[in-house]
Design a protein that fits this description.
By secondary structure, the chain is α+β, with helices and mostly antiparallel strands. It is built from 5 helices and 5 strands; from the N terminus they run βααβββαβαα. About 30% of the residues lie in helices and about 25% in strands.
Length: about 140
Amino acid sequence: MIEYKQTHNFTPTQLQQLFQSVQWASAAYPNKLVKAMQAYETVISAWDNGQLIGLVSAMDDSVMTAYVHYVLVRPEYQGKGVGRKMMEMLKEHYANYLRIVLCAYNKQLEFYKHIGFRPEENETVMFITELKDTDLA
């Protein structure tokens, strides 16, 4: 049975295994991921028999806008409602806010649309910069 929690406490190994399962480069920095999860305002996670199988994290301005950064579900659990449940919990948590902004990656656009998000109508583009490995140490 899948258990859902709102927690900021993870081990480096738990986060590394989850991030590796979806082939995210940040898996190479498990200790930084632990610190990042502690800093997010909201982190909702999914667990199966003690194994971290999914995670959603968001930061917010405390009244108007919440920004969702991570939405991860282990591949073997994708398509089983885990991501949808975590996002429903996140939407409920931020129900009194004016908006929830999702930082989307092109590969996951269909999933984000499936769970109720839509692309910005004015075609806003997000720009990012990549940090060198030495900058992340």
